[in-house]
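Usage example:
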Amino acid sequence: MRIERYFDDLAQQAIESALGVKAPAILKPTQDAKHGDYQVNGAMALAKQRKENPRDLAGKIAAELVKHPAVAGAEVAGPGFVNLRLNDAWIGAELAKNLDDPRDGVPSVEKAERIVVDYSSPNIAKQMHVGHLRSTILGHALVSMLRFVGHHVIGDNHIGDWGTQFGLLIAGLRTFRGGDPAGLDIAGLEAVYKQASKRAEEDPSFADAARAELAKLQSGDAESRALWQQFVDITRAELDKIYARMGVTFDEWLGESFYDPMLPRVIEAVTAANLAREDQGALCIFFHEWAESGAPAPGRLAKQKEPFIVRKKDGAFLYSTTDIATVMHRHEVLHASRAIYVVDVRQALHFEQLFAVAARLGFAMRLEHVGFGTVLDESGKPLKTREGKAITLASLLDEAEARALEVMKNEKVVDLPEDELVRVARAVGIGAVKYADLRQNRLSDYQFDFAKLIEFRGNSGPYMQYAAARVGSIFRKGEIDEAGFRVPEVHLEAPEEKALARTLLKFADVVHTAAETCQPHLLTDHLFALARDYSGFFEACPVLKSEGTTRTSRLALCALTGRQLRRGLVLLGIEPVERM
RNA sequence: GACCCCAUAGCUCAGCUGGAUAGAGCGUCGGCCUCCGGAGCCGAAGGUCGCAGGUUCGAAUCCUGCUGGGGUCGCCA
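Running the assembly step on the lines above writes:
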């Protein structure tokens, strides 16, 4: 059950019965437990409208609310707050229901959508680096959250497998490698590309050769195409390794090359819609001119003088063209009603432009740019190697795993065989990296600091894995089946039990809100609060040594905590571990 | 030049469609291992929410201006 929704509905009904009007209840969790569990703030807004005394209205609403069995108390406070205290027996009954629910009390959405999530998007012939970290982690988490709440989700890796870099790559391969990519790995490819790109700057005839190679490839030359395919295969092998390490998967790999055949259609479409005109030889869309046709461009685009170019003066297409084709495909072929682009926030303007064009072309779907900030080092500058190069994702993951292993060997709380230790260290290291990324508001830049990351304290991935492992430990010790644990009702006595129970009840709302608003940090916040409340409970309330309904109730709280922690971690793309 | 984003405790960050005394982690200081995992728990100190106005019963949150920082903007993605 979505608890906030439930009480919001309840409060609205109370307002309607008490005052005979439909009005927003404005239900919020209280900030301080002495004000109860939730507060209804609607009375104050309503009093203003009706020019009545807010406390009087609040009193009538409270009198109505208190009749409900879920409500233990409803009191008027301050200028017109209605403070609600939940009934512990009601909470206990709800928790017992969740314990018996394979979805841990999280309902499915009423209306399932088809949603494309576009994330990761690495380039061919380049190693993945920190710039791909957030898109990959965030995107994968969003896919699993949206899928869990009931949407039909298509995770799509929109790889950069087409475009000017291939001219350079082929020309470079011919010049430096005799034209044979055999034996090259991803780093080798990248080296060829860098060498070629440098040569092209210094030597115009080489640059011409590269352009000629690109033209050959794009005109469908069989030999060029075969080389291209080898580049793709070499890169794909490397990408598969990285994604396997990260536990990241996709449903589709529809890269830029996939849309190439559709690009002439894009030009036809924008031309037919009178959106584009030639300027300085390029085919351009000018948003500031839309007003003349009576439909001004949305937001800041209305004043945007710089064009959205869909065809260069040399006739070549750009990513804008491809992106329009991508919207077409997602709408017409994938039948998606929503697409989410998990891409660096610096591309915000591009997406505003793209979405405006898509709307004008009549694609009735919800398009969202889920942006994120830059990964910075400890000093607040974009994270790079000492030489100023991008840090490869592979080396970053290596270090995370190595550091996790080191900590685990030093701390050594439980005895694990060496191979198991290494396996768990991987899950902990990768989990730490993912959690650190997801716990932060995605729009702000974030500081990546291995020292903090692997410290394993506080609001961190390892702490959450640790908390979950501790829960499992109780059941192992007591030789009780955790997965199959059921109880008819949960009795709440100790304050720590009551606090934990209230946090547990919030899970469904948190998961839905985090998924719908694409904000995984809401889920990490909940998991952290849960882990803390559990620790408090764990310190104050002996479980195995207690008896009767106290024992079964406490075991139920443990089981629910364990499930939420593990479920939450899985939704974030982090692997729970049994022991660490 | 235009536009966008950001500014909250020493540091890193939360703060939901405006709600009560602005929260957490790390760090600092002080407690807690006869007890189910101490990677833990409890407590304390620490903030003119960048500045100045405005709207409101009520503003970190909304509006305007200013300062400081970051970013983006015709043929890369």
